[in-house]
User: Fold these one by one.
Assistant:
Number 1:
Amino acid sequence: MSRLTIMQLLPALDSGGVERGTIEIGDAITAAGHVSLVVSAGGQLVPRLQSRGSRHIEMAIGSKSPRVAFTIGKLARMITDNKVDILHARSRLPAWIGWRAIKKCARSPLFITTLHGLHSVSHYSSIMTRGERIIAVSQTTREFWLRNYPSLEPHRITVINRGIDPSLYRHSVTPNLEHRKRICQEFNLDPDKPLLIMPGRVTATKGQDKFINLIARLRMSGVPCHGLIVGRIKDRKSEHQDNLEYRIEQLKMSDAITFTDHRDDVLELMSAADISYCLSRKPEAFGRTVIESLALGRPVLGFDHGGVSETLSSIFPEGRVALNDEQALLAKSIQFLEEPPEVPNKHPYKLSTMQQQTISLYEDAVRYRTHEPQ
């Protein structure tokens, strides 16, 4: 296979699963001997991307402003100047900009999209179905898009699960006591009390209210635990955040629940916990925090729908709880605390597999196009 130039498009390079996946595939592109370009508005992860051999091009292709239309011609020039072979869009607005830019190029690159989410069904979202090849991050995601876009041919969608680097995860049958001691000192917690964690952005759909209710019910049941809500709080003055904090105050749980906001040591916090939770109201496309917690040996309880159900079913099925069944969630939490379950030490969600499968898809797509009749 000759050297390819592959350009990934996304809104920005701040924290998040899409951003992390972009960097990981950038690593794989350069390791395979190809050229990795990433176009975004920039962000805190740009130095990390560049340190691994990818080139970053700053362009506000994800800006929800009429001015974003001016980036189409600029992106078309960048595609032409860099002789891009594959344009890989990871988000809807950048995908629209990329699609329009391709139309301005004399030599059109292959257009590939990744379905990272279970988006609203609309014309705006439909751009993600226009890829000549389409990557779905889970079987759940693939089925969602096929069900809601009947004109989408199944053969164009390939499931490539997101994965993690096993070397970064130390599996343990008990919480990591070193990390537990440090975290409890930082937040002034009792290390002898059960520590429960809910990782993920703080939004109205992620189910932090269910977690708060659970901690309150556990304490009422005589379990003196503490809950950590670990994730970026976009706006501390938002109505949603106000509602969560009011609920905590109403339940007299201010000493039992801590919001940590964004953390760079999420894996250490997960490793210190007795149980990790994923309680999203809406189905997730994948369950990354699920596989991360399980890779650390920490039991997970999650609502039985979407990608969370898919990942739990394949590794730790006893962690599934019927959607919104708070009584079952309480019962299983008490059960897990009284008799900690054994978490399997192996699972199929590996970073190297994700990288290898993506590079193979790129190369196969180029070979197929090259041999197509003109």
Number 2:
Amino acid sequence: MAIWLTESSRVIVQGMTGAEGTKHTRRMLAAGTQIVGGTNPRRAGQYLDHGDTRIPVFATVEEAMAETGAEVSVLFVPAAHAKAAVIEAIDAKIGLAIVITEGLPVHDAAAFWAHATRAGNHTRIIGPNCPGIVSPGRSNAGIIPEGITGPGRVGLVSKSGTLTYQLMYELHDLGFSTCIGIGGDPVIGTTHIDALAAFEDDEETAAIVLIGEIGGEAEEQAATFIRDHVTKPVIGYVAGFTAPPGRTMGHAGAIVSGSSGTAESKRRALEAAGVRMGRTPGETARLTRGVMSAG
């Protein structure tokens, strides 16, 4: 099983004809993703060739959906135009929009999040500034490397792209149902809680790995949700124990203010909710292996 992305998901790529869009479209195709089209209003009617596969380019998301039945869009659109591209996807009522673009102003992310809410939340947004989502052996939408893990019964949700890849590799012997990089910006579309709820409802996910980092209160909120609503074992890791207070580290959201948002405060909250916490990615992987072997 998998959440949100399966082998039957029909995917389009907004910004498919740009350098990054082209590169990653071909990489996703090679991974088996069912990419059925892309968008660029200036190159509508053209095709992207990949081996024997020709992927059509459409002017708009609405046109691409009408012609292909697409349900998922991956956005490789420059930051200056990303807000408009996400709003276009929302207005077309696509089911899932994965915003890879980094460097978006917080105001832009807040604007398209609010637009999705006003439109009735027909579109789930993952990102911005995220690596995407992969259901190993089924589909890969974003920039997550292919081949570092296989299908299995562990669900993974992470703020950090790099740590997503590392835990996937560390646990490649177990495999994953779905791995989701939600991004670490201050405003994101899909949260730890959203992923936890979906994994809790997925019959084939036996355990959940949650990766957080310093800044904000997302992990503390996730801890409360886990305590009240999650029955499956959760294993956690929070990056940033050595980060100096008051300084942004990596993601725009990774800033500590006083005692709020520190790795230690997040670890304590998650442990109080029953989460088994690793101090390193390697220890987190060992804890996960122990949980899976016990159950």
